[in-house]
Amino acid sequence: MEKKKRSGWRKLGRVLLYIVGSILLLFIALAIYLVSVSRMTPPEIADKSALQLQRKSLSSSAWTIGNSWFRKSNSGLYEMYVEGAPFERGVINGKLSGELIRRQEDNFVAQIKKMIPSTWYLNFLRYFTGWFNRHLPQHVDEEFKEEIYGESFSASDQYDYIGTNYERLMNYHAAHDIGHALQGMMLVGCTSFGTWDEQSADSNLIIGRNFDFYMGDKFAEDKMVVFYHPNKGYNFMFVTWGGFTGVVSGMNDKGLTVTINAAKTDVPSGSATPVSLVAREILQYAKNINEAWNIAKKRKMFVSESFLVGSAEDNKAVLIQKTPEGMDMYSPGKHFITCTNHFQGDSLAKLASNQEQISKSASEYRFERLSELMQQHGANTVQKTISILRDRKGLHNTDIGMGNEKAVNQFIAHHSIVFEPKKKLVWVSTAPWQMGRFIAYDLSKIFSMHGLDSDHEVYDSAQNVAADTFLLSKDFAAFSSWRHMKEEIMEGHDVDLNAFVTANPQFYHTYVLAGDYCFKRHNYAAAKGYYEMALTKVIATKGEEQHIRKQLETSLKKLKS
Asked: 157 by DSSP, 3-state: which?
C-alpha cells in the first residue's frame, strides 16, 4: 500500500514538474520572442564621415558646425539651424543639441516612472512597446530613419535596458500616438484655429494653436525652435524637444503650416507611421493643400488625427482628418476654421467613436468656447489670436477654475504658436505655458543667414508680444500654490485642505482630489462632502460626472459599513 502511495506521489510530482517546466519554457520562449521582435536594425549608411564633425563654441551657450548652429536665446527658447543630407542632419542635430536630447530623455523616463511606479509594469511596458512597434521601421521613410539614426549617436548611454539608442528614439517618435491611443493617460487635448479674408483684419491667413501634450513640467522646460534646410524639399521650422525630429507644429518657407490634434481612436494592435512623421513629410514636401492631402493619403496611421493645414498659396486652412481606416477633408465653407479633439464634417464625424468623444470628453465644450471667443473678438489679428489661446474661462466667460480641460488655456501647454503664412512670420510662446512672451521669427531672414558668426539674437524683437499680465496677479500666485499642493496630494503627502480648496475653488477637480485625500485617510464623511461639492462644480460631461458619482457611491458604501 505504501509503495503504491509513493508511486502515486512520484507520478504526480513528475506531472507537476512537467507542467511547471512547460510554463517556464513558454515564458522563456515568449521573452525571447518579445526581445527579438522589438529589435530594430539601423539603416545602412555608406558614408559615416559626419560622425567625425565637432562643434565649435561661439560662447557658453552657442555652438556651430559649418553653417549649422545652436544657441540659447535670452527668451529662454533654444534655437537651432541644421542643413544637409538626412544622416548628416541627424548627426549635426545630435552633436549640437546633445545635452537637451539626454536631459529630455531623463525627464521623459522620470515622468513615466512617476506615472507608472510599478517596476514589473514598467518592464512589461518596455516589452509591450517593443512588440507594439515591431513593424514601425517598415512604415517610416528611409530619409527619416537615417536622420533619427544619426541623432541617436548623441543619445544617453544610461537607458540600454530600454533599448538601443536608435530603438529608443524611434519609439519616442510614436509616443504621442501611443499616449493618445491609450486615452486613459489623457496626455493630449489640443486647440487650433485659423481665420482669413474678412475674418482677419488684414485679410491674410492667421493660424493659432495650443499644443497640450503634458509629460510633466520639466518636459516643457527646454523648448526648441528648429530651422531645417534639407537637401531635398522645402526649408521649414518647427517647435520640438531634444531627440524629436517629427513635427507637431510647423511652417515651411512656402507658407504652408501643419498642426496636429488628436481624435478618439480604438486601441490599435500595432504601429504604423507616427502622426508626427506624416506631419513632418507634409511640411518638408508640400507647398499647398492638395499636395498635403496626397502625402497624408499615402501613409497608413495607427491612430486618428486631425491635421490643420494652412496654405499661403490657397489663403485658407482645412482639416485633413485621418483614421487607420480612412480619411476626409473638412473645409467649413466659411473664412475661419476651429479644431479641438473631435472630427467634423459629413463622414468621420458620424463615427461612433467620435460621437463618444463629443459626449464624454471636454472637446465639444472647448470647441464651443473657442467659437464664442472668435465671435467676441471680431476681425482677427495676431494679438487677438494670442489672447484667445491664453483664455482660461468657460462658456459665457464663466469661472470654471484654473487648469480645467474645458478651457482653451489648460495651463499644461508644451507650447503655443501663431503663424502668418504669407508674411513667413511665426510667434512661439515662452514659459510658463502660453502666458510668457511670444517670440517672433521671420523665416525669410532666418533662411537667408549663412551660418552664425557670433552669438546674437535671431528673433524679430519689434514683432514680439508681451507676456500676459495675469502672471502678476494674486490669482496666478494662488494657482501656483494650488499646483504645488496638488503634487503633494498626488504623492501622498499631508496638505492643508482648506488652503488647497481656497486656492482654486471653482475647479471641480479640486474637490475630487480633496475627496480622494480624505478617502485614503478613511475619513469617508469628509470624502462624501467633497465629492458632492465636485458634482455641483462639474459642467455636464457624462464621462466626468459618472466618474465622480462612482467615487461618491464608493464613499457612501464605506460610510454604511
From this structure: coil
